[in-house]
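INFO  loader      accepted 1 record
INFO  loader      residues=654
INFO  predictor   begin
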Amino acid sequence: MVAVALAGIVLGMGMTGLGKAKNAGSSRGLATAVASEFKHAREKAVATGSPVAVIIPAPVGRSLFWLEGTTEPTVSRVVNFEGDYPRGALTVGTYAGPNFIKNATMPGFKADVWGARMDSWLPNEYKNDFVIMFTPNGSVTTNELPSADGSYRVIVGMGAKVSGGAPGNVSVSASGEAYTVAISLGGAVESDKGFLGGSGGNDTNGAPDPSVAEPPNPDGDWTSKVPIILGNRVTPPAEDVDGQQMHVLDKGEYLTLEVFAQSGDGKPIFADWNDNPTTKSGPQYFGRFSVPNGDPERMEFYPEFDWNENGSIDGNAERDIWRSVWTWTPPPAAEPGDTYSLQVDVKDAKFEKEVSIADIPPVTVAPPGEIVFERQIAGRWHLFTMWADGTRQRKLTEGPHDYTCASSTADGKVIAYQRGNEVWVMNFDGTGQTRIAANGHTPTISPTGSSIAFYNSTTTKVVVKRLEGGTGDEVDFDTNPTNVNGAPGPAGRITYHPNGRIVYFTHPDTTRIAAARLTFPGNGIGGTLITPEAASIPNDPSGSQVGGASADRLGHFVYYHGDQNDPYIGRYPLNGDGSVGDIGGTGGPNIRVSVGQLEACPAPSPDGRMLLFTESGTIYSCLIANVGDFKNAAAGTPIAAGRRPAWIKQRGSF
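INFO  predictor   done
INFO  writer      dumping tokens
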């Protein structure tokens, strides 16, 4: 009998232990299932670029559901745990121990914005429930729920005792075999046994108190609505080409294509760009998109976006914005003058409704670059610009003066020039004309625009004047005027190293190129000549003069024209420190043979592959097939009437 009694006691103890183990296992399983729902919801928010809220009916629930959509959220998923966990309970509230604060968010644009918009986004019937929203960047915001130590806490257990009103003022005093599912402000999810960081009580006696709230039913299918296109932006912007707005680029350049829209039904929307070659036909003439042509791409959602770039959010017109960014480049088979039309379609999530922008300015493929040059009109010299193939010529200057000797900054935005006997600068389009010096000629502006070099008409010195800083400080160097027969006068020209800190000009003995290194202390300017000096140019007869200095923007060579009766073009190689190197002899690789052709005023392209020059009253271009053998450069091709060309910019190079 004693043995039987002892066995009964042991059996009873075993049954009690098993009962606790069952509760613990159920709480752990329920916590695992709840944590999995939160993780899945975060993944979907990030993947779709649209917020996903996980909602637990308050004050205590045995279920949760998802709410999705950017402007008209709907219930997309309902999970009822009551069948598998009959005594399960979910709640969110404060408890003894941690220091709770309401509605903390991870610093960042989307979480902050969605927190501010939660009340207007959330349907009224769910405003008194526990709402934990994952924003498109994965971070978390809520409807004023309490958090502690950087995380929101969902208490999961077998039963729960709560008090207070929902959603942000619930207090949890007990839960059977409790687990805590913690969701960090950044969206990380983990679960742990007990009240995380606290000392909540243990309650295993019966159902949750108060009664469990019921979840909603999933919403049915939605009706597609037409998206609303707000605008588009193509970069670089269109420019005037013979009276028509066109996007101009080289086949090595890219257009950035943006479109901004709002969803008509609150669901994701999709963008699809297409191009059409209008001057040629065939698959080889279609451009290249960053997204395959004809394959719509889901746009990215922004709660707020200053798409018109005016520095403020303009009400509802800049809220709930969907944005798409593609790029486009001409095909390898494209040639200068080829044109393309572009169109963008925006579609709803079911691809049943779409709206388009078809009046986007066309794209034209440009030749290698743009040039500024001078031409005589009615007895006066004026400045013109043109494309590097001689087309798209445009007159820049007007007035009763001679405008000559133009040069440009590396970005092509500022042009320096001579007006009469003065030095001026202007914008690339001819606006903003400003006098820099009252007594100077043959100016050259530095690649960076920080200084300008010119010849003083009275002292015949080279003057370098600082433009930035507002002081107008100057430094000068000795030189002598030159006159190369057959070349436009004045023959002297100053040029800069691409770093803007070395200038090259005619040496005082007129037979070589001199170099000076510039310094810019504070807002001032200084300079010293670079030694050893360069050798005199190869010439026949002796005593020939040098002019027309022009450095390429790779820092490899300084080109010049020289001789007395038949100017030829040559070049000095530059050393790594910017000093002038050994030019070699008359038959060497740095002398271009041009007997009787009067080639002068060389202007190498920024990439060093093309040379412009003047021959009598015509501008020519030639390719330098092998930059190591200038002697065998290609024959010149006439492109326009004029002289003294200079590159404004070379598309796709800088």
